[in-house]
Amino acid sequence: MTADSDQSSFDPTGSPSGEPVFLAVGQLGKPHGVRGEVTLNVFTDFPERLRAGATLFIGNEYTPMIIRHARPSGAKILLTFDEIQNPEQAVSLRNQMVFIRMEEIPPLPEGEYYHHQLLGLRVESEEGQDLGRLEEILPTGANDVYLIRLPDGRELLLPVIEGILVDVDFQVGVMRVQVLPGSMPE
How far is residue 156's CA from residue 80's CA, in Å, rounded to a whole number? Predict the structure, then answer.
């Protein structure tokens, strides 16, 4: 089962292992107020890590910025940064992606995985049939949906519900799934 909707991003210089270095946790929106506060559209299931004193990395350059203050505002969070003092400076952050370093993500319970850990894995049925690769995990509200690109290019959509994910073997890069009757494309 997947537990987080964080989105991974790869360091432009690349890590030796090919693993992501930064993880997207949100996207900055419009300035709020006169003191340089800015809205954050939250991507993470762990917004509690976005607190005063935490360092976030902003934009494609991964510019480090320290949170001075964070407060909830509906589904968003309002942030002020030590480096931003007024609305004119805050407007420069608009639409920028916000990242944390991978080593800062909290561990998940046994059997739960971050999306970035599963994306790109080869997918097999319980019987060992090659189903292709996990291309995308679609949030739908009730539950996520795995979008698996079949070897012939068609898409297999599987709801992420109890029992669908049978097991994951990161050593060989394979996840095994239960294919629901009638879910294979014609």
Answer: 43
